[in-house]
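Might I ask for a little of your time on a matter of protein folding? Here, with my thanks, is the record as I have it:
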Amino acid sequence: MDLRDAEAERNMEPNHSECIYHMAVDIGGSLTKLVYFTKNNDHSDDESEAGVSCPVLKGRLNFKKFETSKIYDCLEFIKSMKLHLGGSQQQDGLERQITAIKATGGGAYKYADLFKERLGISLKKEDEMDCLVAGADFLLKVVRQEAFTYMDDQKQFVQIDQNDLHPYLLVNIGSGVGMYKVDGDGKFERVSGTSIGGGTFWGLGKLLTKCESFDDLLEQSSRGNNRAIDMLVGDIYGGMDYSKIGLSSTIIASSFGKVISDNKDLEDYKPEDIARSLLRMISNNIGQIAYLNALLFGLKRIFFAGFFIRSHPFTMDTLSAAVDFWSKGEAKAMFLKHEGFLGAMGAFMSSDKHGLQELLVKQQQNPNNMLCCD
C-alpha cells in the first residue's frame, strides 16, 4: 500500500484501473483535509502500483487539502475526481452514488447542508478529538518513517516500537492548539491548549504584511531576519550574554520588543522580518507550553502535528529549539510526515470498509507489513 499527497491530481481522473472505495473529510476552521483510498486492480496481491510490497492491501491512500474559505474548490475536486461516485462501481460497470461519508471538524456541521445540496452526500459526523488521536496512532504504528526529529537543519527518522508507543503528548497545531495525553488505543485526555496557533500567525500576518495566503506568509518568513524586530538579551546587555542564568546574547528577551524604541511606522519594516518574528514568537510559545505539559505528566515523547507546521524547516527548528532549551536537552520534539491529516485519517478509519484494521492486525504480527511512503 502506498501513501501519497494528491496535490498533483486536482484536474485528473482516477486511473482507469483504479477504483475509489472510500473517502473522509476533516473540515477545520482554516483548512479542509480529504483522505481517499483507491484500489488498483492490475497488480498482484503482494505488490502495489508503486512497486511497494504490501501483503495485505492493494491500493493507496491519497491526501488533499483546501482552504476552508474556498470550500467550493473542495467540492469541485470531489466532483471532478468522481469521489462521490465510489463504492463497488467497478464490479458491474455502473457508478453508484455514495450516500454518506465520515466527516469531522467544526465544518462537518457548518457545511453539512452544502455537501448535501452540491453532491448529494450526507456527512456522518465523528468526534474531532477521537479522530485526531486515532489517526495519529494509526500512522505512528504502521507507516515506516512517519516520525522524525528536526533540529539545526538535520532531519532524523525515529523508529517507533508500537508496543512502546504510549503514553505520549500529541500537540496538534491548527487554527488553535490542542494538547492531548494519549495513554493507549482510544484512551486520551485533553490536558492543555492555547488560542495562539496557526490562525494567530495567519491573522496577524495578514494584518501586518498584507500577505495573500498562509504559504505566502511562510515564504516571506524564510527570507526574514527577526533580529530587526525582536529585542534580544544582547540588546539589553550591550551585546553580552547573561551567563549567570544561562542566557546567551542571541536569546529573544521580548518578541517584537525592538519596535518600542524604534521611531518607525509599519511600512518602514520589511514584511519578511515581521513574518519571521511572528513565526518565531508563536512557535517558541507552543514549544514551551508543550514541554511544560510533558513535564507535568511525566511524558517522554512529544509529537507535533497540524498544518501550521507544513514541514517548514524554520518552524520545526524553532519548536525543537524551544523544547531543547526548556528541557535542558533532555527532551526532543518529534514531527509527523502526514502532520495535517490526523483528523481526516481518524475519520477514515472509523468506517472499516477499506481493510486498514486488517493491516493493523497484520502489522502487529509482522513488522514487515509497515507502509512505505515516498
